[in-house]
Every structure is written in C-alpha cells, then in structure tokens.
Write a structure and sequence with these properties.
Layout lengths: L8 H18 L3 H17 L10 H19 L38 H5 L2 H12 L3 H12 L4 H8 L3 H29 L1
Helix pairs in contact: 1-2, 1-3, 2-3, 5-8, 6-8
Family: Belongs to the sigma-70 factor family. ECF subfamily.
Keywords: DNA-binding, Sigma factor, Transcription, Transcription regulation
Protein name: RNA polymerase sigma-70 factor, ECF subfamily
Length: 192
C-alpha cells in the first residue's frame, strides 16, 4: 500500500509546532523559520512514496528539516554576528576534580539505561522542553552539534565564535540539560 498525504494529515498537523519550535532555535526570524518548516513539510509530502517506515515518521521528517537547516545556516555565514555566551559560570568548577572527572557529590543521580529511555517518548518531550528553555545562543550551539551533528569547526565558522567558546557553551548546555532532566524526569521517575 502506497502512502498518501491524506493518510499522514494528522501526523503533519501534530508535528508542525514541534518543527517550528526546533527551527526557531536555529533561525531567530520567525518568517524564515516558518518558511523552512513549510519547505520541510512540502518535501516530506512529495517524498512520502519513498518513506519506507523503517524510521519513525517524526524522525524521518526531522531529518529532512535537519538538512534544510544546515543548508540555511551555511548560506547565512556571510551575515554572521559576534556570538557571546550569556551564561554565568559560577558553580561549574566545583563539579569537577583536577582530572576533569565528576566530584562525588556532583555525579548525576539515578540515570537510567539510555536504550530504555530512548523508547520512552515522555522522556523526549521533557528533553525538548528543557532544550527550549536554554538560553537561545546555548540551545543553538547544542542543537547544531548534538542534534544536527555539525563539526565544531563548522559551528565556529557559522557563528563566528572561537573553538574554546563553543566547547564552553556545549559544556554549560549539557550541565543545564542535566539539571533540568534530573528535576523534570529522573527524580520523578525514582520517586514513582
């Protein structure tokens, strides 16, 4: 049976706000973000005959968006602006020892097996909320590196930041995400 756009109407409608929220992390102009989401949805509709169902539908559409965002970011390199982290560094040094390992009292509490978590869609909803509540510059760098899998050098080139600044921002993003996930997911799971 061949996939038709009508059979995926509800999926597209449910996915559109999530695609837009994710795109706004990378594209501050809402008009451009909406255009990219529209292009993604159109490409997905046109490509439904090639959608095999081996990946989840959402994952497949996000991969289309990912490629469109990477193309957009590469085209925007010329108009880049100076990128400065807007976060406070206080408290970070106390979490690690001289060998850059976690101090005993700073180790993340009650982390589950990653494969088990991957299967829990609620976890990813919490993760999305945590990511969307990061400062915009931090969320953008994290998404470029971890979700769009750009190399550090390309991120630095696109955003006009130093490699050291990029790694600092990524480190802070991971710490903030860890804290948010512990409060919104892991600690609730252990109390359940």
């Amino acid at each position: 049976m061949q996939s038709t756009p009508a059979s995926y109407t509800a999926d597209f409608e449910a996915l559109r706000p999530k695609l837009l929220a994710f795109t706004l992390l990378q594209v501050p102009d809402k008009g451009h973000a909406e255009d990219l989401v529209q292009e993604t949805m159109l490409a997905a509709i046109e490509g439904l005959t090639r959608y095999s169902g081996t990946a989840q539908f959402d994952t497949w559409v996000y991969s289309i968006l990912r490629h469109k965002l990477i193309d957009y970011i590469r085209k925007q390199k010329r108009g880049r602006q100076l990128f400065i982290s807007d976060e406070d560094t206080s408290g970070l040094d106390g979490m690690f020892n001289a060998k850059e390992h976690w101090n005993a009292d700073a180790i993340p509490s009650h982390w589950h097996n990653p494969e088990d978590l991957h299967m829990r869609s609620h976890f990813w909803e919490i993760f999305d909320l945590c990511l969307l509540h990061l400062p915009s510059n931090t969320a953008r760098v994290f998404a470029l590196r971890e979700l769009m899998e750009l190399e550090t050098e390309e991120i630095c080139d696109c955003l006009g930041i130093s490699e050291q600044n990029c790694w600092t921002i990524l480190h802070r993003a991971r710490l903030k995400l860890r804290g948010c996930l512990e409060k919104g997911w892991f600690l609730k799971e252990s109390n359940a």
